[in-house]
Amino acid sequence: MLHNFLHGASGTITPQSSRHSPEPDSDGMNTSNNTPPTTTITTVPTRPRKRIVVAITGATGALLGIKTLLALRALGNIETHLIMSKWAEATIKYETDYHPSNVRALADYTHNISDMAAPVSSGSFKTDGMIVVPCSMKTLAAIHAGFCDDLISRTADVMLKERRRLVLVVRETPLSEIHLRNMLEVTRAGAVIAPPVPAFYIKPGNVEDLIDQSVGRMLDLFGLDTEGFERWEGWKKE
Ligand SMILES: Cc1cc2nc3c(=O)[nH]c(=O)nc-3n(C[C@H](O)[C@H](O)[C@H](O)COP(=O)(O)O)c2cc1C
């Protein structure tokens, strides 16, 4: 039973995990062709191009997490697994027009933060990495200490031990020596610290522009191009 939870193929869910959107079309077959097939096609379960875990914690900047999910959805053929902390739900309600249930609906799978048997809690469940966006100092500290008492810190721990991409969009200011030390040490352990520091050279018209640029640069770290922001290409002639 537990084996099934931990080792299932794409689509496996645990009692506390849920799935929202259908698997994207993957076979690319032309169904309008009237000629009957002459060969038997065996369907081999294929994994989407990328499978990314998105965790949202209770640091301010809930919209960063929401826009990350939207960008991954827009890219297509990327399977997203979402974990939200209790305080993420509170900041989503306070800072945005979204309800946490609307945010969950943006992901392919959502996992309860207390569900330590969710597929993402095991290194044997293959993923292409995890982004914690925004990442609170509390979750940073838990990841730094390897203290896996919730699914976010456990999954981040898995990313580090499996040498997978782990991006922490840490958000706090000013930073204490404890914060800086934790960031340095998780970087040494393999994580990428990517604070949502805006690039003003894009001459943003509004906050959305700044967020799109930040999200675009974060997803660059997974080899994904949102094409949703202007890149620096040298001084522009007026
Ligand atoms: C409106 C609001 C904004 C917050 N902003 C931050 C922040 O920017 N950085 C941070 O580390 N914690 C911030 N916190 C505190 C965290 O929510 C708190 O430390 C919480 O325990 C984090 O838990 P989590 O990482 O499990 O979500 C904020 C809390 C609230 C209510």
TrEMBL record:
UniProt: FMN binding residues: G58, A59, T60, S85, S136, M137, K138, T139, R171
Location in or out of the cell: Mitochondrion
Q: Which residues bind dimethylallyl phosphate?
A: Y201, R217
* Domain named Flavoprotein: residues: 50-220
Question: Which keywords label this protein?
Answer: Flavoprotein, FMN, Mitochondrion, Prenyltransferase, Transferase
User: Where is the segment annotated Disordered?
Assistant: 1-43
Record-listed E.C. numbers = 2.5.1.129
Which reaction equations make up its catalytic activity? dimethylallyl phosphate + FMNH2 = prenylated FMNH2 + phosphate
Spell out the InterPro entries in the cross-references.
Answer: Flavin_trans-like, Flavoprotein, UbiX-like
Protein family: Belongs to the UbiX/PAD1 family.
Assembly, in brief, is: Oligomer.
Task: Quote the function comment for this protein.
Answer: Flavin prenyltransferase that catalyzes the synthesis of the prenylated FMN cofactor (prenyl-FMN) for the ferulic acid decarboxylase FDC1. The prenyltransferase is metal-independent and links a dimethylallyl moiety from dimethylallyl monophosphate (DMAP) to the flavin N5 and C6 atoms of FMN.
| Name of the protein in question | Flavin prenyltransferase PAD1, mitochondrial
* Designated gene of the protein: PAD1
